[in-house]
Amino acid sequence: MTPTRQFMEAAPHTTSDATPRPTALRPRGDACLADRLARSVLAREGSGSGVRTTRVPDLLAARARTGGYLVDRVPLDALSGWSFTPGTGNLAHDSGRFFSVEGLRAEVGGSAPHGWQQPIIHQPEVGILGLLAREFDGVLHFLMQAKMEPGNAGLVQLSPTVQATRSNYTKVHRGRDVAYLDHFVGPARGRVLTDVLQSEHGSWFFHKTNRNMVVETDRDVPVRDGYLWLTLGQLGELLRHDDVVNMDSRSVLACLPFAPESASALRSDAEVRSWFTEERSLRDVRAELTPLSSVTGWHRDRWSIAHEQGRYFEVVGVSVRAQGREVPQWTQPLFRPLGTGVTAFVTRRFGGVRHVLAHARREGGFLDTVELGPTVQCTPANHAHLPPDRQPPFLTSVLQAPPSSVLFDTVLSEEGGRFLRARSRYLIVEADESTAPTTPPPDFAWLTPGQLNSLTQHGHYVNVQARSLLASLLTTEIPRSPA
What we know:
The chain has 483 residues and is of the alpha+beta class. It has one domain (31-483): Alpha-Beta Complex (Nucleoside Triphosphate Pyrophosphohydrolase). Helices cover 18% and strands 33% of the residues. It contains ten helices and 25 strands. It has helices spanning 3-10, 33-42, 56-66, 166-169, 232-238, 247-254, 269-282, 395-399, 449-455, 464-476, and strands at residues 69-74, 82-84, 91-93, 100-108, 114-122, 127-136, 139-148, 156-159, 162-164, 191-199, 205-206, 209-216, 227-230, 285-290, 298-300, 305-307, 313-322, 329-337, 341-350, 353-362, 370-373, 376-378, 406-413, 423-430, 444-447. The strands form four sheets. Strands 6, 7, 8, 9, 10, 12 and 13 form a seven-stranded mixed sheet that branches. Strands 19, 20, 21, 22, 23, 24 and 25 form a seven-stranded mixed sheet that branches. Strands 2, 3, 4, 5, 11 and 14 form a six-stranded mixed sheet that branches. The longest helix has 14 residues, at 269-282. The chain is globular. It starts with a helix and ends in a 7-residue tail after the last helix.
C-alpha cells in the first residue's frame, strides 16, 4: 500500500456514527460572473427601476431640496455629546463609540526622511459597505441609495445599499434599524459576489477598514423610498457627473471581479506582487497615535483645529438635520480640506493593452504602510509654495494635458460622513513616452486595469482613490474577454 493510499483509507470523512458521508465539491469561482458583469456594463439604461440614467442627477437634487436637510457650522464646544477629553485633548463622543479625533506622529525613512504631526480620525471598528444585486431581464442591477451625508457636495448622492458603521447598525444612536442589513449579515444573506476589507483615506484615517461587499439575491426585494435599481452601465454614465456617485459606492464597484481586457501585461502578476512587496519592505514608515493636545504646528479655537500655515485641512463642527436617516438630528466634527484635490491616472497602451501608472504610496494612516494609489494624488494648493523639483511627480503633465488626451474628468466627493465638502478632480489622462516613460521612477509601475482589479480582491493593496478611478475604468469601457 502506498503512503498516499494509506492516508486516504485511514482518514475517511465520517459522521459521528462512523457512517461515510460524501463530500460535495463546489467550483472555486463563478465562471459566468465576469460575463454577467460585462452585460450589466453594456446596459446603459436599466429595467430594474424604470428610471432613465439622465434623470438620476435631477432626482438626487430634488431629494436634497425637499428632504428637510440642514447642515450648519457650530463651534466645537457646542457639539452635543462630544467633548475634549481631559489629559489627552482628544475630541471624542461621550459613548466612547463612533470615532474620535486624535493626534498622529509619523516618520518616513529613505533617501529623503521626514516627519510630521497632525490630527487624524480614529475609528477602530469595521463598517459595512454593501451593494445588493439582482437580475432583471437577465441583467444584473444594483440597489443604490439616494443618501444624505452632511459633508456631501449637494448633500444627496448615490451610496451603496448599506453604508453603516458598526456603531450605527448596532444602534448606539438609539435610532432606527439600518435598511436591508439582513441581506449582508446573518443566515438570511444572499450569494456573495465579493467580500473584502479595504482601507479609507490614509491621510485622514488611522487604520480605518471597511467591509466592501456585493451580495446577490433572487428574492423579491421591496424597494423603499430613496432606493433604486441601476445597472453597472448606468453607474458608469453617472460617474461622469460631478458629485453623483459617492466614494463608498465607487470603492465597492472596484472590488467586483471583472474580466480583464487582456491576459497579457508589461509585468506578470507575480512580478507585480514582488515589486509591491519590495516597496512595502523598503518603505520605512512609523506612525503612532498621540494625544491631540500634544500635536505641534496646529492650533485650536472655538470654531476649528487648523494648521498654523493655513494649509491641509481643519477640524470643524456641524449641526445636522436629516429626516429619513436613522437619527433625524445630531452634531459631529468633520474634517474640512482646504482646497480641491487632484487624483489622476496617467494611461498608455503597450502592445494595444491599456496600462495605468500606479504609485506605491506611503500614508501615515495605512494599516500596511504602503498601498497602490493613482499616478497623482494631492491637493495642489498644499504644494504651491514648493519649487518645481519638489512638486508631486506627473502633476504638471496631468494639469497641462491637452483636452484631446483627457479620457475622464469629473469632480467627485470624498466620504461625506467624516469630511465636509471634500472634493477632488478625478482624471484619466492619455500620455506618451515624453510625459510618462516606459521605465517610470522606482516607486511607480505600469499595471493593467485588470491587474489592479485582481488586487482589489485582497485587502489593503489598492487605496480608495485608485479604487474610485478603477471603478470608472471598469464601468465606462466595454469589457473584453481575455486575449
